[in-house]
Amino acid sequence: MSGEKQTAGSGTSNIQHSTPNIQSGNSDEMLTKKELAARLKVTIRTIENWQREGFLPYIKISSVVLFHWPEIIEHLKANFKVCRRGVVRPRS
Question: 49-88 pLDDT, tens per residue?
Fold first, then answer.
């Protein structure tokens, strides 16, 4: 054997979807740019662009930037929608 693990029932039940689990984590959790990027499955540079464009609420204390996870979720739900082709655009 080559050391690979095989699992019983290799049908569709073992498939993981790539949609981020936006509800995970502590409800009062504060995240760094790196943690937020990982949770939203984007790059840190994308987080910085979204900050600059006003797409993400954040708290800055000196040089430390933090994101309150519940506020991020509410802000995204209130201001963005998923379009037909999966493109996310700001609501008018």
Answer: 999 999 999 999 999 999 999 999 999 989 888 776 666 6
How many domains is the chain partitioned into structurally? Answer: 1
What is the DSSP code string of 13-81?
GG----S--TT-S-TT-EE-HHHHHHHHTS-HHHHHHHHHTT-S--EEETTEEEEEHHHHHHHHHHHEE
Q: What is the CATH number for 67?
A: 1.10.10.10
Q: How confident is the model at residue 14 (pLDDT cuts 50, 70, 90)?
A: very low
pTM over 0.70: no
Which whole number is the average pLDDT over 37-47?
Answer: 97
Mapping DSSP to helix (H, G, I), strand (E, B) and coil, where does residue 64 land? strand
C-alpha separations of 43 from 27, 38, 54 in Å:
23, 8, 17
**What one-character DSSP code corresponds to residue 34?**
H
